[in-house]
Amino acid sequence: MDEKQPLAIARRLADSILETYEVHHMRWHYEDGLFLMSLFRLGEALKDEGYYALRVKASYDTLVRDDGTIATYRKEEYNLDQINAGRVLFDLYHTYKEEKYRKAIESLMNQIHGQPRTHIGNFWHKQIYPWQVWLDGLYMAGPFYARYIAEFVSIKDYSDIVMQLIHAEEKTRDERTGLLYHAWDESMEQLWADPATGCSPHFWGRALGWYCMAIVDILDILPRDSSYRKPLVEIVKRLAKAILAVQDDQSGLWYQVLDQKGRIGNYLESSASAMFCYFLLKCIINGYCSDQKIRSCAEQGYKALLERQIRIDDQGRVHLDGICSVAGLGGKPYRNGSYAYYVKEPVVSDDFKGVGPFILASIAYNYWVEQSKNDV
After folding, report:
1. Do 82 and 111 contact (CB within 8 A), yes or no?
2. Catalytic residues
3. Which among 7, 68, 127, 280 has most CB atoms closer than 10 A?
């Protein structure tokens, strides 16, 4: 496929998914929210907002009622994953001016206001995972929370969001590699938690990918003159360096367990690779990092996704292969965070956790290419 046409590729993938993803299939779930948000952004990038925006609206309207309540949403679970699907509500509210979307946004903010926290102030990932901070959660709630403040709060105080990002990096960062562990248990009671640090034992690609996308998306929302930007940009620079160090030289992609290249069972994983491409491209576009190596690695990574992980079937449909279906910690049956655990989870195609980031990376890649032309 031609990497010079990233929006065309993203559109073909999106349309292939939509052939089987009916309006009524939407669940109030972070995966659906991620995919539908990427559709909305794709419409904006294509300057064809009507087609994709109406498709996104139709899906959300199957769940968001006129009074702002959301079918299948369960506030009492205090699950950060349920917040992410709310990000598109801002776009729907501004585009269609329907008050039910604003009411639904307020419903989700009510959860954030009551979300249990660790002693250092970070949200618990879920009510059923007490005292635990997962990198995933920074993406699930952070950008929604930041946009709410930007658009609906008169006093723009982003300190809570920024400090949670800073704390998460401080608690999970490995000094040797600069990579972040999947999660941190403040209580140090979990079997997966290191008794000295509280961290889980491995660097799972997608967990770090979630955090990377969270921080650049939140930076997009913070005012340009905000004093909170500087510490976040410093984190971005550290992460970019760490991510480049574990990129596979031969393929340009990243492994399921980031620092275990060559170990039996490890594999090149698409969702994390797409997330890192998106992150690196945003670093370049916004001027957070000027290292030429970041440019070449971002380009290599995106082209590798096209050449190795994108597939066209006999009917002409486009698919994204090589996506880890799911991974977590604790729960029932108990997930211990071992290397063997991460590499044994199913590998699937067209999972929204890969498709959404790939579409977003394609949009960013296209923007970068066009920006580069204008700079000549």
Report:
1. yes
2. 136
3. 280
CB-side neighbour CA atoms (13 Å) of 292:
0
Which band of pLDDT confidence, cut at 50, 70 and 90, is reported for residue 376?
A: low
Q: Is 201 exposed, middle or buried (0-12, 13-18, 19+ CB in 10 A)?
A: middle
Angle in degrees, CA 13, 353, 214, rounded to 5: 115
CA angle 240–211–162, rounded 5-degree value: 100
Secondary structure (3-state) at 188: coil
Q: Which residues of 113-125 are buried (b: 16+ CB within 10 A; e: fewer)?
A: eebeebeeebbbb
| Spatial distance between the Cα atoms of 356 and 274, rounded to a whole number of angstroms | 9
Note whether 135 and 207 are within 8 A (CB).
yes
Distance CA 176, CA 174 (A): 6
CA distances from 130 to 28, 118, 119 (A): 23, 8, 11
Quick: pLDDT tens for 263-296: 999 999 999 999 999 999 999 999 999 889 999 9
Bridge partners (DSSP) of residue 183 are: 134
Query: d(Cα 290, Cα 283) in Å, to the nearest integer?
Result: 8
Distances (CA, A) of 55 to 21, 24, 115: 11, 11, 31
Residue from 350, 281, 360 nearest 321 by CA: 350
Q: Are 63 and 71 in contact (CB under 8 A)?
A: yes
Q: Tell me the DSSP string of 50-101.
A: HHHHHHHHHHHTTTB-TTS-BTT--GGG--THHHHTTHHHHHHHHHH--HHH
Phi–psi pair at 153, nearest 5 degrees: -115, 130
Q: Is the pLDDT of residue 95 over 60?
A: yes
Q: For the packed helices 87-96 and 49-60, what is the interaxial angle rounded to 10 degrees?
A: 120
| Residues in CB range of 151: below 8 A, 6 or more apart | 90
- 178, 249 contact by CB (below 8 A): no
Instruction: Quickly list DSSP for 289-333.
Output: ---HHHHHHHHHHHHHIIIIIEEE-TTS-EEE--EE----SBTTT
